[in-house]
Specification:
The chain is an alpha+beta fold and 507 residues long. The protein is built from 13 helices and 22 strands.
């Protein structure tokens, strides 16, 4: 370490050949004559210069990584090293391929232990992302397998290495660099007696890979959320309430938001005109406004180019009263969601019933989920939506007390962590003295994230001022979720013990 003055990653050139040959001979002492000939190195550099790199210490080659690009669909599942390299001509390389295939990687013995190999692997991953390839693959040696070949199959050997019951320096290194075994390759590398003629096909998936689309529209990765912290106030009529709603939609659209989220029962002020009726009668009168509100919001979604989550409203469906809301997409389509878990108050005072459908919604910003208020306090729902690929969970809510709000807030944040997704909650503030059963409101709208290095340490992306009418704008990065899924400090979805338990929806 004291003698190291500089470490440099550089492209391999023809002028490096003699030094490279010497380094390979020193690195592969157990495999005589295991070095590339000069014409082979020239062919690699000519076909794919970006794929051939060396790491230099004090301007001397300390290691090397060689790669080609292949069409992975055309590669035999049980290929050999000779086949993948085109009998060492590298004519299997194609710029139109979709997978970066590692041909060779080594570090000279005197430089091992300095984690220089990790730098070469990281370069390959960066190159893979840069070229928009599906991933990195290579046949990995298992040089200690010959010691166990009589008692263990290759599969059993690999399993014990992964459990740290057996030490294999090469395979352990590859696993620690996020490569996962795909299959066993028999007779992969001729003359590899230490591996007993076996190798492991190892793969690393590029979570940023994007398939080429024939459509003009592309799915967004940075999503802007517009949360509306709605002030409960008196309105003369439906038209006046819609004017206020349009004002907020116009505002969040002006910031180029992709979604506008309204609170649960944001239209409750319209019950004031029926306050002389009983609570069940008043809520049923309010339900008559739901259809015109949804149709108007759909027009707003198109004209303001924004997806609108309408919060929720009472609605009669087949003679039953539900707490329902709508996703009004900017492409003109409309989809309904219904609150599943009705609070004791909703059932007792209004006679509401719970819905029966759990589902995600496809949008131009990916899959989203919507749970109304009390629903978010049931962790099974969030997990079911996560298993369907949900990236963002929207929670319109209505709470009258701070302890009620705390239940929604804390459960919503838990859903973000355990399901590795974003959660946006929006509620109403203020009071409605002329509406029975809707007296006061308490809310603080927020956007929650998972808790890992790529996200805020407290898991809060943005938060509104409590009990103040306002909008909250926040950007969320979907690629960060993909990175968390694969490389997070903890991986809640991946690490579930599905061998012990499972969660299923009833048909």
């Amino acid at each position: 370490m004291k003698k190291i003055e500089n470490i440099e990653l550089a492209f391999l050139t023809q002028d490096d050949y003699q030094e490279l040959k010497k380094a390979m001979i020193e690195s592969y002492t157990t495999m005589p004559n295991s070095y590339w000939r000069e014409h082979q190195i020239d062919a690699l550099i000519s076909r794919f210069p970006e794929g051939q790199v060396v790491i230099k210490v004090n301007n001397q080659i300390a290691g090397c990584a060689l790669s080609i690009i292949v069409d992975y669909s055309k590669i035999s599942k049980h290929h050999t090293y000779q086949e993948i390299t085109g009998d060492f001509t590298f004519n299997t390389h194609t710029d139109a391929g979709d997978m970066l295939y590692g041909i060779d990687v080594f570090i000279k013995p005197e430089y091992r232990g300095l984690r220089l190999g990790r730098r070469l692997y990281d370069y390959r991953k960066d190159l893979c992302e840069k070229l928009n390839l599906k991933g990195v693959a290579f046949g990995g040696r298992i040089p200690n397998y010959h010691k166990y070949a009589e008692s263990l199959t290759p599969k059993e050997y690999i399993d014990k290495v992964r459990k740290k019951e057996i030490h294999d320096p090469v395979f352990n290194f590859q696993i620690s660099n996020d490569f996962h075994p795909a299959r066993i390759l028999k007779s992969y590398l001729e003359g590899d007696e230490a591996s007993n003629d076996y190798a492991v096909l190892l793969e690393w998936d590029n979570i940023y890979y994007e398939e080429e689309s024939k459509e003009a529209a592309t799915q967004k990765k940075i999503i802007r959320l517009g949360l509306i912290q709605w002030q409960m106030r008196s309105y003369k009529n439906l038209e006046e309430l819609l004017q206020q709603a349009e004002f907020f939609i116009d505002s969040v659209s002006g910031y180029r938001s992709d979604f506008a989220l309204f609170p649960e029962f944001f239209n409750a002020p319209l019950m004031a005109e029926n306050n002389h009726l009983t609570e069940p009668e008043a809520i049923r009168e309010l339900a008559k406004h739901t259809e015109p509100i949804v149709q108007t919001f759909s027009k707003f979604a198109i004209s303001y180019n924004i997806n609108i989550i309408t919060g929720s409203m009472p609605e009669f469906i087949d003679g039953k009263l539900y707490n329902a809301g709508y996703l009004c997409k900017r492409d003109g389509t409309i989809e309904r969601y219904i609150k599943l878990h009705i609070t004791p108050n909703e059932a007792k005072v209004w006679g509401m019933e719970g819905g029966s459908e759990i589902r995600t919604f496809d949008t131009d910003c990916g899959k989203i989920g919507i749970l109304i208020c009390y629903d978010v306090e049931f962790p099974e729902l969030g997990r079911l939506l996560a298993e369907e690929g949900m990236d963002i969970l929207f929670v319109p809510f209505l709470t009258d007390t701070q302890n009620g709000y705390s239940r929604v807030r804390n459960c919503a944040q838990a859903r973000a962590i355990e399901n590795e997704c974003y959660v946006a909650i929006a509620g109403s503030v203020g009071n409605l003295p002329k509406v029975h059963n809707m007296d006061i409101q308490y809310a603080q709208s927020m956007v929650f994230t998972p808790c890992d290095f790529a996200f805020p340490t407290n898991g809060i992306k943005a938060e509104a001022t409590p009990n103040s009418e306002m909008i909250l704008i926040a950007d969320v990065d979907i690629d960060l979720l993909r990175e968390l899924n694969k490389q997070g400090s903890v991986r809640n979805l991946h690490d579930r013990r599905t061998d012990l338990y499972s969660l299923k929806m009833r048909p």
